[in-house]
Design brief:
Layout lengths: L7 E4 L53 E6 L20 H4 L4 E5 L15 E5 L7 E2 L1 H7 L14 E5 L14 H11 L22 H5 L4 E5 L10 E2 L5 E2 L6 E4 L12 H8 L9 H7 L5 E3 L2 H11 L15 E6 L11 E5 L2 E5 L6 H7 L8 H6 L1 E4 L2 E4 L14 E7 L3 E6 L12 E3 L6 E3 L5 E6 L3 H9 L5 E3 L5 H4 L5 E14 L3 H8 L9 E2 L6 H8 L4 H8 L4 E2 L9 E3 L4 E2 L4 H10 L10 H6 L6 H18 L14 E8 L4 H17 L9 E8 L4 H6 L5 E7 L10 H4 L16 E6 L2 E6 H8 L4 E3 L2 E3 L8 H16 L4 E13 L3 E3 L16 E3 L3 H10 L7
Parallel strand pairs: 2-21, 24-28, 28-29
Antiparallel strand pairs: 1-30, 3-4, 5-6, 6-14, 7-12, 8-9, 10-11, 10-12, 13-14, 15-16, 17-18, 18-21, 19-20, 22-35, 23-30, 23-35, 25-35, 26-27, 31-32, 33-34, 36-37
Helix pairs in contact: 13-17, 15-22, 21-22
Length: 859
């Protein structure tokens, strides 16, 4: 089963990886009841009296290869640095969490639940369930600042699985976990995934302090100081009235640049806009955070860079690049970070936010573990910047999961084979009772996973019919033929794909200033106009969009997907709540009073309004004309310029062509009879690979259908993806710290920024106007949490940076070579993943069978 916790960037692609075995959510509340009691202990440990059952062992020499295809091959699966869903692909094969989810069956029963209708949480890399030691740690370790009133939920000991080893047999013990956490948070390495352990619900005490140890944190001065407002200290560095040192931000995010960095612009445009004479000297002076001290000498070197005619600034503009430095104290890992060794095979974990029961185990279904010797050998440093090649090749990868990486060819092929040193093959826990024959089988019948890049759906289909792939995701043209096949499976998913629209004004202005950009023919700036964005939003009939582009998917209306479960015990879904329905009615301007019920009102939403689209396009024309974005030189009421919108590709294929053509067709239909008739063009970019998200975030590409995948049991945690600039697609041009929201909670009106509301919703104690609030799990009632989530969703939608279009899902064919032990989809377990896949034929038998069928299979 794939880990449930992490959230990934996800692109709308032709087919989902392991979609038929995925671990997402749907609308069957009868199958989601868990087996964790309030103390965090798992029930169903298999100790109940059972009738003697036959235990089946698979033939040791037989090969059963899972043959998979992906659109984009993973390039970096380092658990400390990966960013995308593509790069996370190897995780479920080569790693294991502290705890995992398995089906309930006769070996792992759940009271009141039939076999295979629920789930059981079992220790995996842990040896047993966590033990709450909050009172003990609070008394013995005041440095972790556990609240005086807390009696539970803040500190745990976890006994570790003594049988867990690396694929080469190296033991994994408490030292392994402490080393890995120390490296993950290392202030010099600045690992992307470090924030996962202090900026979300699962927050380790002291982790943030250590991650920033000894570094100067820079805050954009936001053009608040000119040189005249500052004084010099004894070292000749300027300081503000509070005595804080001032710096020049070369590679620091600046509001003056719309959330981008000066170095980003210089790297992109070079001498075309900047004086490069001193640039390399300045870059060599930068510290690891991208700043240099503000001194007279440094300012003299800096000002010529920006004081150019092409950049349209003078030396007087230099103050826009000033940043304020805060020196974070140097702290040691030991005594600061709440993750330490308390036995050879035991760690103690101290949290800064309380977490218990299901949510604690859910958070621990992933892992941060790395191999010390290999990790160290993969690190390199250049001018204070550290990079790592860990988990980028066979040679730099060691497994502690059921499979190990045995072959890797970048952009072509990966192969995983059984890791014979994995404890799960011999511990007696990784087996199940077959629901048909009642026999006990080992999990993970697949002996290998063979994965190759196959971009085109048509090629995947041909390979599938020849028996060369295990699954094939149906395309629109396949539905009539295959949707009733006995081998066809529908699989829902949590992701909503929204059209992300570029709002990065500064980046757009710079692109328009390029020598090869013809402003008499084309325009980019109009896409930042709110009326234009609203017009795009109502130009697409979501149901028709899904039916035409990807019929297995459905219409999407909110940024929180239809299959997010907010209560794992009951299977209740966020989108089924009154709060979520009212949120959509509010955003789409549906008057509930015009309907017999809220359900009926919400069901009426289509997101499509061609009349409004024409009015909005006309308003956008007038506003863009007034702003100077476009012209109408002959006064015919038609834009002289075509608004060109680049669609950001990770890889190109027929599906992407079809998608972009459809986006073009429908928006131009909506613009007929308006000043933008025939004047909007959405075109494909060059393939950007895994850097596609960077292109969107920096405003160097304009739109893409993308979303967030993962964390299907925590819709509340999604809010951080929209307020945290480290994650948000629009973080360079939307500042959630400057947008306020007011709500009435228990009769009290509370006003705070979107960041404050998101933090409080996810378990942080936040000061709202002098009063502290915490709206995290267990800190307030669930209806209040749903109220806040719904209100935040509306605020995010109102930016029109995200236009929801499609709810993810898949209808796919499964090979005749294998079958699912459980065919019915389970919101928590999916269909069990690769561990619950059984084979009808081994590889030799499969080859013979294909030949008997004439080389092409019928489905």
């Amino acid at each position: 089963m794939k880990k449930l916790l992490a959230i990934f960037l996800a692109l709308l692609m032709v087919v989902s990886v392991f979609a038929a075995c995925d671990n997402t959510a749907n609308d069957d509340p009868e199958t989601t009841q868990g087996t964790v009691d309030e103390s965090g202990n798992a029930e169903g440990d298999g100790n109940e009296e059972e009738a003697e059952r036959e235990v089946v062992e698979f033939a040791p020499d037989a090969e059963y290869v899972y043959k998979d295809a992906v659109g984009v091959m993973a390039t970096n699966w380092n658990p400390h640095t990966y960013q995308t869903q593509d790069d996370d692909y190897p995780t479920e094969f080569i790693r294991a969490g502290f705890y995992s989810f398995i089906y309930n069956d006769e070996l792992n029963p759940v009271e009141g639940k039939d076999p295979y209708t629920g789930y059981v949480i079992i220790p995996e890399m842990a040896a047993s369930m966590p033990v709450d030691v909050t009172e003990e740690v609070k008394a013995e370790h005041p440095e972790f600042n556990i609240p005086e009133s807390a009696t539970s939920g803040y500190a745990y000991t976890i006994d570790l699985n003594p049988d867990a080893v690396w694929e080469d047999g190296t033991p994994i013990n408490a030292d392994s976990y402490v080393y890995s956490m120390k490296r993950l948070l290392d202030p010099e390495l600045k690992n992307y995934r470090a924030v996962d352990y202090y900026a979300q619900n699962f927050s380790i005490a002291g982790a943030e302090a250590y991650a920033n140890s000894g570094h100067t944190s820079y805050a954009d001065a936001a053009s608040a100081y000119t040189l005249a407002d500052l004084t010099k200290n004894e070292d000749g560095q300027y300081v503000n009235a509070d005595g804080k040192k001032m710096y020049i931000g070369l590679n620091v995010i600046l509001s003056h640049l719309g959330g981008d960095t000066l170095k980003g612009y210089v790297d992109s445009f070079g001498a075309a806009y900047f004086d490069m004479t001193n640039w390399e000297t300045l870059v060599d002076m930068m510290d690891a955070n991208g700043a240099i001290p503000l001194t007279d000498e440094n300012l003299a070197l800096f000002t010529p860079v920006i004081a150019t005619e092409a950049w349209d600034e003078t030396a007087d503009f230099a103050y826009n690049y000033f940043v304020v430095g805060t020196d974070n104290p140097v702290v040691e890992y030991e005594g600061t970070v709440g993750l330490y060794k308390s036995g050879d095979y035991q760690i103690t974990m101290v949290l800064s936010k309380s977490l218990a029961g299901f949510n604690l185990l859910y958070s621990l279904s992933s892992n941060w573990l790395v191999n010390e010797d290999l990790y160290e050998s993969c690190l390199s440093e250049n001018n204070g910047v550290w990079t790592s090649t860990y988990n980028t090749s066979v040679e730099t990868t060691l497994s502690y999961g059921p499979y190990k990486l045995t072959d890797y060819q970048a952009d072509k092929h990966m192969r995983f084979e059984r890791n014979e040193n994995w404890y799960g093959y011999t511990d007696g826990k990784h087996q199940y009772v077959d629901p048909v024959d009642g026999k006990i089988y080992p999990m993970y019948m697949s002996t290998a996973i063979d994965t190759q890049v196959v971009a085109e759906a048509s090629t995947q289909k041909l390979m599938f019919l020849k028996g060369e792939l295990m699954t094939y995701g149906l395309q629109a043209e396949d539905f009539e033929t295959y949707r009733s096949s006995d081998y066809c499976y529908a699989t829902p998913a949590e992701t909503t794909f929204f059209l992300i629209l570029n709002g990065h004004r500064e980046a757009i202005a710079q692109r328009e200033s390029a020598a090869d950009f013809d402003k008499t023919q084309y325009d980019l700036e109009t896409m930042t106009n709110l009326s234009f964005r609203k017009a795009l939003a109502v130009s697409y009939d979501r149901d028709l969009f899904a039916a035409t582009i990807s019929p297995a998917r459905s219409a999407g209306y909110g940024i929180v997907g239809s299959n997010y479960i907010y209560d794992p015990e009951t299977g209740a879904q966020y989108r089924d709540t009154d709060q979520a329905k009212q949120a959509l009615c509010d955003f789409y301007s549906v008057n509930v009073d015009d309907y017999d019920s809220l359900d009926e009102a919400a069901a009426s939403i289509t997101g499509y309004d061609p009349v409004a689209a024409k009015e909005l396009f006309t308003a956008a024309f007038n506003e863009a004309l007034e702003a100077g974005y476009i012209t109408d030189s002959d006064g015919d009421g038609i834009s002289d310029q075509t608004v060109r919108i680049e669609y950001c590709l990770s890889a190109d294929d027929d599906f992407q062509t079809k998608l972009v053509n459809y986006l073009n067709e429908k928006v131009n239909e909506a613009a007929e009879g308006t000043p933008f008739e025939g004047k909007i063009e959405i075109y494909k970019s060059a393939p950007y690979g895994n850097s596609w998200s960077d292109k969107i975030k920096t405003g160097l590409s304009d739109c893409v259908l993308a979303g967030w995948s993962g964390s299907a049991l925590d819709p509340f945690g999604l809010t951080d993806q929209y307020v945290n600039p480290a994650y948000a697609y629009d973080g360079a041009w939307f500042d959630a710290n400057s947008v306020e929201m007011t709500m009435t909670i228990d009769g009290t009106e509370i006003t705070g920024t979107l960041v404050q509301w998101s933090d409080a919703l996810n378990g942080a104690t936040v000061d709202f106007g002098g009063t502290e609030y915490n709206f995290g799990d267990g800190m307030t009632d669930v209806d209040t949490r749903l109220d806040i989530l719904a209100a935040l969703e509306v605020e995010f939608l109102k930016t029109y940076d995200y236009l929801p279009l499609i709810q993810d899902g898949e209808m796919s064919l499964l090979t005749q070579q294998a079958y699912y032990v459980v065919e019915e989809y389970n919101p928590i377990m999916g269909r069990g993943g690769i561990q619950y896949l059984k084979y009808n034929y081994n590889e030799d038998e499969w080859t013979d069978y294909i030949a008997e069928q004439g080389g092409e299979l019928k489905y």
